Amino acid sequence: MRRRILSFGHNSTLLRLRNAVIQSAGHEVITTKETTLVLELARKQDFDAVVICNSIPVVLREAIARQLKRLKPEIPLIILCEEEECNRFKTLAEIVIAPPAFSQDPLLHAITRVTNKTKDQQRRIKAH
């Protein structure tokens, strides 16, 4: 099922690669390298998940994740981080994963997990 993914990072090469893989999996990807634009996009549009890249400095990544959760707490966050940073994001993100070395499969699995979980929750709310 096609999902809308907001992809945010500072490294153009990583961003292009990741977005191409997400698109090839059948999802729509909206992307930006600008902090203010990621918040504006999240505020104005609906997304099934947000991917935040480890190319963003850790303090800024954490601040953005907090702002996104304040704006739209229902948006699942997938945050890429180095092993020593992961604990910082456990309470902010639905999934925290290491940056892919050779395969983007962990990221695609994370997108599937959080978007399926979100859709299941929405169905349960509508049923009540």
Q: What does this 3D model show about the protein?
A:
- The protein has a 5-stranded parallel beta sheet, with helices on both faces.
- The C terminus is likely disordered.
- The chain has one domain: Rossmann fold, CATH 3.40.50.
- The protein is of the alpha/beta class.
- Helix 2 packs parallel to helix 3.
- The chain starts with a strand and ends with a helix.
Which CATH class? Answer: Alpha Beta
CATH superfamily: Response regulator
Instruction: Assign a percent range to the helix content.
Output: 40-55%
**How much strand?**
15-25%
Q: Give me the count of strands.
A: 5
Task: Please summarize what this structure is.
The protein is α/β, with parallel strands linked by helices and 128 residues long. It contains five helices and five strands, in the order βαβαβαβαβα. The radius of gyration is 14 Å and the shape is globular.
Helix and strand layout, with pairings?
Elements: E1 4-8, H1 12-24, E2 28-32, H2 35-44, E3 49-52, H3 58-71, E4 77-80, H4 86-89, E5 95-97, H5 105-127
Parallel strand pairs: 1-2, 1-3, 3-4, 4-5
Helix pairs in contact: 2-3
